[in-house]
Amino acid sequence: MYVLVVDDEPALREVLSQRLTSWGYRVATAGDVQEAETLLNTSEPDLVLSDVVLPGLSGLDLLRRFKARNAALPVVLITAHANVDAAVEAMKAGATDFLTKPIDTATLRAVLESVRVDQRERKAARSLDEALQEPATGGLIGSSAAMRDVRAIVAHRVHRCRRAHHGRKWHRQRSGCPNHP
């Protein structure tokens, strides 16, 4: 997974970059919104981890710009000045999560793992959708009533998986969605 870290503090960018790299992530860093947008234009990060307070535009503005380009791009905001109003505003704007500095390593790792699992599930659901759109391919061959029933069951499972993808953990565990422990 490729992570774009946006923070105006060089020391924090370096620490996050080293930590994420040691966990197996590919990392790019930016010190401001302009640099982050340049990186977004030249590469496709799987996740953006951005400070809220940046020179020029804020991390919330960055979040809105990135979401306007790609609504599915996970953006996690971090701040040293946490308050409930800022967190609510960030979540309403589409933030995946809102973390406070100093960043708790276990929490960061859990957020990254959650994003990774969500992306894997979305990819699996897209693949299944594509297979279902082409009934003569994708391993399901035939147009008998029994095969139509099989396709309907699979489509129902995909729907439940998608619904659970946006729900709580207990929903996922009971959804029958693959790739859930």
From TrEMBL:
Keywords, ordered alphabetically: DNA-binding, Phosphoprotein, Transcription, Transcription regulation, Two-component regulatory system
**Cellular component terms, GO, for this chain's entry?**
cytosol; protein-DNA complex
Q: Which InterPro entries does the entry link to?
A: CheY-like_superfamily (IPR011006), Sig_transdc_resp-reg_receiver (IPR001789), WalR-like (IPR039420)
Might you name a Gene Ontology BP term for this protein?
regulation of DNA-templated transcription
Q: Does the keyword DNA-binding apply?
A: yes
GO MF annotation list: phosphorelay response regulator activity; transcription cis-regulatory region binding
Q: Does the keyword Iron-sulfur apply?
A: no
**One Pfam assignment:** Response_reg
Modification type 4-aspartylphosphate: residues: D51
Q: Which SMART domains match?
A: REC
The Response regulatory domain extends over: 2-116
The name on file for this protein is: Sigma-54-dependent Fis family transcriptional regulator
What is the source species?
A: Gemmatimonas aurantiaca
